[in-house]
Amino acid sequence: MFSLKKLSPSITDMIRFDHSHVMVTFHQYTGDKRPSVKKALAETICDALEIHATLEEEIFYPAMRPLAGNQKVMEKSEPEHMEMRRLIHELRNTDPRDSRHDELVFELMRDVQHHVADEETVLLPEAEQTMTKDRLSELGTQMTKRRLELVTPKAGKIAKNTAVGFSSSTAAVVMGVAGALFAARAFTRKPS
Ligand SMILES: [Fe+2]
Ligand SMILES: [Fe+2]
Asked: Which parts of the sequence belong to the Hemerythrin-like domain (predicted)?
């Protein structure tokens, strides 16, 4: 029988995929890019981080909180998201011709790398040790559904910024396509 739950990627794989995707975007940002490209890349990063943080706060962290062995890492996750949101707010309000724009992108990148490392070396392995595959997949389904709700109102803006930010990069086009396919896979694959 067709079961959406069985076909969905696990929530932990989805989180890892989001992390890789945003790091690829950070790596496109260099000081010599045109201001319009810098702004588009920054907006792509900000939107991706906001959506990812909301998904973790609404779905992954509540499921993980009672199971986490390392409560220290668990407890600092949301305050780190709040600090990230503060940087995002300042970045959005900074002119890309201002050197502060570069500083803010690189500060955000450092914070995100640190936060992602804690998640990938502590929380995600713990989730995979303490939850069943079915549970990880069911949470993956919840994450995909909620992602669609969060992305839909911003879809036009995200597509435009991705096109401007990545105009010279075929690698990024591949990543963008892979991301769209990954998100849609659970809903489009036909039962065999
Ligand atoms: Fe996080
Ligand atoms: Fe994360």
From this structure: 11-126
CA-CA-CA-CA torsion sign (57, 62, 63, 65): positive
**93 C-alpha vs ligand 2 centroid, how far in Å?**
24
Instruction: Compute, in angstroms, the gap from residue 101 CA to the centroid of ligand 1.
Output: 23
- How far apart, in whole angstroms, are the C-alpha atoms of residue 159 and residue 69? 39
In eight-state DSSP terms, residue 67 is T
Mean pLDDT computed over 27-33: 96
CA 124 vs CA 42, 47, 56, 69, 112: distances in Å: 27, 23, 12, 11, 16
Which tokens hold the place of 123? 């929380």
Residue with structure tokens 């435009």? 160
Residue type, 111: D
pLDDT tens per residue, range 119-150: 999 999 999 999 999 999 999 999 999 999 99
Name every residue whose Cβ is closer than 8 Å to that of residue 83 and which is 6 or more positions away in sequence.
111
pLDDT in the model for residue 38: 97
Ligand 1 center–CA 92 separation, angstroms: 20
